[in-house]
Amino acid sequence: MTLSLMALLCLGLSLGLRTPVQAGTLHKPTLWAEPGSVILWGSSVTIWCQGTLEAKEYHVYKEGISKPWDRQKPLDPGNKAKFSITQMTERTAGRYHCSYLSQGVWSERSDPLDLVVTGVNSKPSLSALPSPVVTSGGNVTLQCDSREEFDRFILTKKGEDRLYWTLDSKRHPSGQVQALFPVGPVTPNHRWRFRCCGCYKKTPHVWSEPSDSLELLVSGWLPDRPSLSVQPGPMVASGENVTLLCQSWSWRDTFLLTKEGEAGPPLRLRSQSQAQQHQAEFSMGPVTLAHGGTYRCYSTNHSSPYLLSQPSDPLELLVSASQPKDYTVENLICVGVAGSVLVVLGVMVLQARDSERMAQAAART
Predict the structure, then answer these.
(1) Which of its termini does the chain have fewer beta carbons within 10 Å around, N or C?
(2) What is the distance between the terminal CA atoms of the chain, rounded to a whole angstrom?
(3) 3-state helix, strand and coil shares in percent for the chain, rounded to the nearest 5
(4) Parallel, antiparallel, or unpaired for β 113-118 and 38-40?
């Protein structure tokens, strides 16, 4: 080996020359969004791409666009970059990837990030079948429906931004479109709060305004079983007032009343103490035939409002179609007058018959 070659080798070692990085040897970057990937229309969102400390530049790509959607230099210490969207719209919704440049080589692209905009169309409704009160370990069906012609419905669980389920819609005989999401087993370990949105197949990243929140209530967790009674009685006439009384010997600060077959949230009242019992009075009236059915009540505490006691024994309320008799003074007077008229008419008929008999007897003599 010549002296000049030896000198070049020594010079290279002294300068710390590195072997060039080959394409595909850089690890894949990570892409995420803050505060989340489902953003209300008009709100801001930040996209982060994290690579390595040696990264010199970061690119974000939006599917459907060949060129980079945005370019950014890394922030200190250099292993990530920040991309900002000041106003989320249909234009910015979509699927994103990112990559970074290190030692003259571009990394492979990150896993996709689906950025969704909500609030573009009117909200659907969300209900639980047969009821939002579920026995611990049981299953329930969540129904999302709308009068909008959505192709799909999306069910989201609060607190888990990346967790959602999508189902194609089906037309109901009522004319609405809907989707039925099976959920369960429902356990008391955490809260079960849901919303749903609708979307169209041609714009899967553009969702409607979310439905009102629906929380599942887990029954059977607290040990006591309250009692349920009704005043004036389980059989009432349409138009009367009714009070359902839920009571518990154990201390509870809230009572709930459910009706069998009702998919909406149960009635909820604060507890009142009376005669060493804790109770709540659920007043209804004037009742109609629609109030008839089977009722149950539960107790709970505000510290864990989604954990309920065992249900009370069922109570069936029977509502008759007839109106209750109204014995007012005016009605009694009317009845009396009508009775007097009938008596007078009866006397006149008898007198007429007696006169006729007497005339016939006189004619024979």
Answers:
(1) C
(2) 175
(3) 15, 40, 45
(4) parallel
Pairing of strands 70-72, 105-106: unpaired
Q: Is the dihedral of CA 150, 151, 157, 158 positive or negative?
A: negative
Residue 276 pLDDT grade (very low, low, confident, very high; cuts 50, 70, 90): confident
Average pLDDT of the residues of the chain = 86
288-to-284, 297, 325 alpha-carbon distances in Å: 10, 21, 16
Q: Which residues contact 193 (CB under 8 A, 6 or more apart)?
A: 157, 158, 159, 213, 214, 215, 216
Cα 280 from chain centre = 26
Query: DSSP code of 132?
Result: S
Whether cis (ω within 30° of 0) applies to the bond prior to 232 is yes
Angle at 217 between CA 214 and CA 219, to 5 degrees: 165
The whole-angstrom separation of Cα 127 and Cα 217 is 13
3-state secondary structure of 299: strand
Q: Write out the two tokens for 335.
A: 């009845």
- Enter the tokens of residue 214: 């629906």
pTM comes to 0.73
Residue 83 CA: distances (Å) to CA of 28, 67, 125, 286:
18, 16, 35, 60
Cα distances (Å, whole numbers) of residue 18 to 22, 104, 193: 12, 12, 54
Cβ contact 31:62 at 8 Å: no
Q: Which residues contact 78 (CB under 8 A, 6 or more apart)?
A: 53, 54, 55
Element (H or E) spanning 277, and its range?
Answer: strand 277-284
Tokens of 207: 């969702």
pLDDT digits (tens, 9 = 90+) for 337-363: 566 666 666 656 566 666 666 656 555
Is the CB of residue 140 less than 8 Å from the CB of residue 169? no
The secondary structure element, H or E, covering residue 3 is helix 3-14
- Residue 285's pLDDT band (boundaries 50, 70, 90)? confident
Q: What is the DSSP letter of 343?
A: H
